[in-house]
């Protein structure tokens, strides 16, 4: 049996990648350390805090889906020293529940 691809594994776990939700467009407005997001699918507007704003900006600026370890490293480099993997998972989960980002 021959595989055409190899999944990426880190510490025996498959790496989850994140991307902007593709089913509905979103519009952004930037205010200092916060982002206001308008979701065209739901018609809702969301005000994101500094952590969520930076993480969403990082995902949007990435040309390809981005994995959690890379997101965590970029968040720390950008000055969010209080962000750890648990905090990142919480922000990603909240953004996913709002259908702003999705797992790939």
From TrEMBL:
The protein's superkingdom reads Bacteria
Q: What is this protein called?
A: HPr-rel-A system PqqD family protein
- Please give the organism: Methylomonas denitrificans
């Amino acid at each position: 049996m021959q595989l055409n691809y190899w999944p990426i594994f880190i510490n025996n776990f498959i790496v989850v990648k994140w991307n902007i939700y593709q089913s509905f467009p979103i519009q952004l407005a930037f205010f200092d350390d916060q982002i206001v997001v308008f979701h065209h699918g739901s018609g809702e507007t969301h005000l994101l805090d500094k952590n969520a704003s930076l993480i969403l900006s990082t995902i949007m600026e990435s040309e390809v889906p981005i994995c959690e370890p890379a997101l965590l490293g970029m968040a720390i480099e950008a000055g969010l020293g209080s962000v750890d993997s648990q905090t990142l998972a919480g922000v990603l989960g909240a953004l996913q529940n709002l259908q702003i980002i999705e797992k790939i």
